[in-house]
Amino acid sequence: MRTQIRRMIVEDIPMLQQVAKTTWNTTYEGIIPLHIQETFLQRNYSETDLKNRMERSVVFVADVGGEVKGFANFSRSKNKREEAELGAIYILPELQSQGIGGQLLHAGIENLSGIKFLTVVVEKENIIGIRFYKSKGFVALNEFEEQLDGHTLKLEKMILAI
Q: Pick from 57, 42, 37, 39: which is nearest to 123 by CA?
């Protein structure tokens, strides 16, 4: 089936929540404890939060046969006009490595015309994510740690020159 990349609409919220849950649980198994994942997902992917994201950032979905199978969330930097952040990009595991992530990334970059840099923060143990970003030209900028509900995340900030 053909993948259509389009802007998120309110009706996509339940499917987007399912994509987030499935990909988080698969990606972070053995990296982030399940109970912390669930708390994060409830807090950051609630209907209210997703409606707010639609208003304050750009969210593209990968629509395959009328169902959301992936999404990406982009926002302009508040301090640097020529920089934007990729806040999230998730594709259902069974559809990864089929070009959907690249299509979502391209849509975001095209929509944020005038940016010269795109940054992303990725968990260092997320090998699939790091491999994807490197394949798209992102390079490591710095490493740091952050707490997520008492769990220490080892993070890497990466940057792509547009």
A: 37
